[in-house]
Structure formats: C-alpha cells, structure tokens
Amino acid sequence: MRYDFDRIIDRKNTNSFKWDIAEGELPMWVADMDFRTADEIIDAIIKRAEHGVFGYSTVPDEWYDAYINWWKERHGIEYRKEQLIFSTGVIPIISSCIRKLTTAGENVLVMTPVYNVFFNCVKNNGRNILDFPLDYDGDEYSIDLEKLEAALSDPQTTLLLLSDPHNPIGKIWDRETLARIGELAYDNGVTVISDEIHCDLTDPNRSYVPFASVSDKCRDNCIVCISPTKAFNLAGLQTAAAVVPNARLRHKVWRALNTDEVAEPNAFAVQAAVAAFEHGGDWLDELRQYLFENKQLVAEYISKNIPQIKLVPSDATYLLWLDCRKLELPSRELAKHIRKSSGLFLSSGDIYGSKDGFLRMNIACPRAFVKDGLERLNKSIDSLVSKN
What we know:
- By secondary structure, the protein is of the alpha/beta class.
- Helix content is 41%, strand content 15%.
- The chain folds into 2 domains: 26-30 and 281-387, Aspartate Aminotransferase, domain 1 (Alpha-Beta Complex); 52-279, Type I PLP-dependent aspartate aminotransferase-like (Major domain) (Aspartate Aminotransferase, domain 2).
- A 7-stranded mixed β-sheet has the order 2-10-9-8-7-3-4, with helices on both faces. The protein has a 4-stranded antiparallel β-sheet with strand order 11-12-15-14, covered by helices on one side. It has a two-stranded parallel sheet with strand order 1-13.
- The chain is globular, with a radius of gyration of 21 Å.
C-alpha cells in the first residue's frame, strides 16, 4: 500500500471528542477516524493557512465542479451547479429543513436503528418522531414496504429521513427498495431527506445508489446530503452540500440554510473539499481496502472467540453492528460493563432506537487498535459469562 494506515497517531490533548477519555481506555465509538487524511488535503489547507488572511469566504466554481465530477465519475449521477447549496454540515441541513418544511407537531419518519442525532434534529425542533423499526431476521435488515405505505399515508407525516448507506447497520439500500420508498413518499406528499454522507465508504467493489438517480419521483421530491467529511476524516472542518434537483423545493432549502446562517464556508471548507474530490481518490480506495480487512478481522475473531456475539453483515461504513442478544443484557448495561471491565468504549445500541442487545463498534483505526479492542471485548464477555 502507498499509504500507511497502520501508523498510530496520538490524538490525546488535541480537543478530540472521541479521545476525551480516561487513561488506558480505547475509544471505538463516535464516528470519526484515527487516520491522517490524504496529504493532498493537508497541503491544500496549509497553502490556504500560509496566506494568512482569513476573511469571509465565497463558494467558487471549483467547489461545484469538484462535487459534480466526483459524483458523476464515482457514482454515476450528474448533478448540476444550480442544484448544489453549500452548508456547514449534514446535520445543519437536516435541522434547517425540518424547520422550513414541516410545522410543530407533525411527524418525521425515521427508520430505526438509525443515527442517533436524527432524533435530536426532530425533537429539538418540536416535531414528533415517527419510529419505523426496520425488520431484522437475525441476519440482515429490511423494510416492510406495506407497513411503510401505511405510515406515510398518515397526513400528519410530512418528512422522511433516509440513511443510505444506513448508519449503524451498514446497509446499502438497493435500487428497487429506494424506488418504492420514493414512490410512496411522493404519492403521499412526504419529502425525503437522504443522508448519503457514508456513500464513499463502501466495501471494495461495492457501490451505493444515489437516491436522486432512481426515478423521477425520487429526484423531484428529495434533498440529498453529501460531504467529504466522513470519507476523508474532515468532520471538524464543517463542509457539506445539499443537492436539491427540484427548483421549487430547492428555493425553500436555500432560504432555510441562509435563514439559519449555515450556508457560508469557513476559510478552509472549500479548499479541503476540492482537494479531497480532485486528488483523494487513490487514498480513499486504499482506505476502503484497509477498512474491509479490519472488518474481516473482526468477523473472524468474533466467530472464533466470542460465540455470544454475532456481527451483522454489512457492505458499507466503518461502523459495525454487533448482535449481542444472546447475553440477555440491556445494551446500555452491556456497554457500561465492557467499558468498566476492559476500558473498551463502544456505543450502546439503544441510542439508535434499537431493541436491547446491540452495540456499535468503530473500526476506522490502525489494525493494532482493532486487535486490542477485540481482546478487550473478549475479556469483558468472558468475565460476564463466568459470573453467570
């Protein structure tokens, strides 16, 4: 490999949310990576910093071109310049759109288990969470489309938050499923916000289907959230885009983002995104291979050493969804036990709206950390089983 993802970088004392932990603990929870980003991105940031003047920034044509070319070449959809709106992040887009496109007391449908901040976006804006649990057969997750039709037909339901690829289960929704979601939402007057922030983190030789590419009904009734931040580990730079193909809906989103003052870039947001999309492809492809090998390591280790846990198969993201129901413990209690007994910090599945017995593990870290985390997990489960 050209890039060294095995390199261990000390992130303590860097104001890192992930690494604000006790001595001896290992954080494999919040979704950022422990890798340096691509050198080309770092160089672009340094070049901008060396200029030394950090006034108000605009969004130049090169920013639009970088997004357009990346999605055309990588994902087979050609967005147009006028369809893209800069934003400081995916969550600001979602929150602003909830405020603009719905009224207090209306329902926002979320498919659980799902990214926990979705719930905050809904509740903090005075809307109702319509919890739509995904079906789980013990191996994979799916959507009961008949139940979804019933949920979307409620006139009080006006917005659907879609995660694709789906966090935390790593599911890539297929074209047929997305087409049906889009049709049901369109026919029932429910706008779709498609959070596609993990779309570049698919397994090697796997790709996702952009929601706006599926059908006319999908394209004309969606707000797509995209960003280089997850794939290139740039979350702290606050750079993202809303893509809204429909002109009338786009005007509402543009007004929402500007009203909430989340449509202006900081001094590094444009340069980092452009460098990522124009020069980061090779780095990203090696990263995807490295993450896939980490995932294989986890799968083999758990299968061999921790039979009480099942790794739910996935095709995307660096987040692994662990089925721990055989242990018959509430998720929060299990996560607490693991952290206390071994120092391994995992996310409790209940915060994602799942039933008890699931944990989320972040494997976007050097392989030495993954091996350490697995040994800690094994130790914790052994201590738990021996008690019983």
